[in-house]
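hey so u asked for the seq, here:
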Amino acid sequence: ISGVRRRGTTQICLTNPEAFEQSYSNICELVERDRAKRANGKIPKLENILVAGVSQMDWENYCQCKNCKAIDDQEESHAGSMLYFVNRMADRLAARYPGMMTLTSMYMYSQKAVKHMRPSPNVMPCLSSIKCSFAHPLEMRSVPQNDTFMNDLEAWGKMSKNLYLWNYTMGGAYFFHPLP
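ran it, structure tokens below
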């Protein structure tokens, strides 16, 4: 970030081969642990649905190294480096675990749709409405934050048939709102 490697509330470098391999290893370990629990009856068996969540951390501070920045600049979105990482991960996981889908959160700094890259068929981009105004209908384009969200939703929807939405209809500061 600004030329300095940081610890703490930062994102990993999405073009770093070692970060990719470590992430892949961690996910496989979790999948194998989950499979062992299912085989032992410790958790219920589900249909043959397997989804891995591969997402950014819940804060900003995305990697700005030359490789990540080049992808983000080409895609005109910070979702570029995220999708680069996730597509590679999804393809590798599906080779080991046939039928596996990979869900990734595209929100905060990575919500804006990419220009050229497309999600792999086994990737489920997940958009969040966290910045929307729920005092108005989401499709009300005269509300700037809703307009931005709807533009992103439409763009991601055109490039993925696996689009998933994470809808925030209330926050802790709005304790009078109903919680469905």
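The radius of gyration is 18 Å. Residues 17-39 form the longest helix (23 residues).
lmk if thats what u needed
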